[in-house]
Input
Amino acid sequence: MNNKFQITDDELADNPTSRVPICVLLDVSLSMSGDPINELNKGVKMFIDEIISDDMTRYSADIAILTFGGIVEQVFEFGSIEEQQIPEFRAKSTTPMAKAVLEAITLLESRKNAYKSNGVDYFQPWIVLMTDGGPTDELSVINEATSKTQELIKNKKLTLFTIGIGNDADMEFLEQFGSSPIKLQGLKFNEFFQWLSQSVSTISDSMPGDKINLPPREGWDALY
Output
């Protein structure tokens, strides 16, 4: 994984607001070429803009973005959300989805340790995984990723959203991560990321340990 940004404790000490740690995993494999990757680019940029525009959420949302297309690459780092630029995503190569999940778990664990070291409260970490296919990882990597997510979800240490894009998304496989996958309606990335930003805002207005009711998934969930 390519770490472009250095995590420091300074901003945690300066901003003790309870954090919402989120790893967003984006499929940028070759099958995402054309309209899907274009709409994904628009949606992610809108998501970050909405987070920044909300005075409460921008201090509590702690977002990392990883892409997987041939390689797993970290393109957005926890902290300093206003100081980072989102690159233009381009579709390429294979789908190392399971490897991306494992690296997200490692990132979240490291971030939780940083919170604890600085006395910062945090909400249950999220992984948001978006894909239009199935993994091309080796079976051992797939098994490790699915078993780890299942265990974390069972122990209430992780919230996982798996979002299937298009007709070729392997929804049956996505169930193996331990949560019910959701089918994106068409290419409504903007609507999804708007829901995600609203959900983060809802969490930000609560306290760690509170029961939280997320906004309805109308407008982007294919079941609605």
In short: The helical segments are 10-14, 35-53, 57-60, 97-117, 139-154, 171-174, 189-204. The chain is about 40% helix and 15% strand. The CA atoms of residues 123 and 208 lie 5 Å apart.
